[in-house]
Specification:
By secondary structure, the protein is α+β, with helices and mostly antiparallel strands. It is 22% helix and 33% strand. It is globular, with a radius of gyration of 18 Å.
Length: 164
Amino acid sequence: MRKAIAVLAGIVLLAAINWNIYGREQLLATGRVVLLELAPVDPRSLMQGDYMALRYRIENEAFGRGRGKESADGRIVVRVGDRGVASFVRRDAGEPLAAGEALLRFRVRERRVKFATNAYFFQEGTAGQYARARYGEFRVAPDGEMLLTHLVGESFERLGSRQR
């Protein structure tokens, strides 16, 4: 009986993991492209390899300098311009979206607001390829869930050798 329960639990766990992977793949394939302007910091981590710590200008627009005073996760509404660059409109209160608007989900962790991720990892020795980063390119689902796919330069070119 214990063996059957363990096998069943393993199957359920694998199904849940695969469902999550499938959802992320769908988001990458069909999500709306939205660019968030960066306010980058460039630390290096000996334990994790090279990476760029990311902050987004929209954080200051939506929450001011006193980030993290909010205690709950939520969503904001942004207007997506011609080039895909997002600008803050309002915090989401459930109103219908206007044309050209999108939802972005944020999380509050350790009194800091985070959109999708706060770090972009790259291969050791390739930091120079990302020094000109101006935007983070995201795939965004209708419910505001986001995945960072690329860093983008001022001329809207994708940086680095990362292919998706």
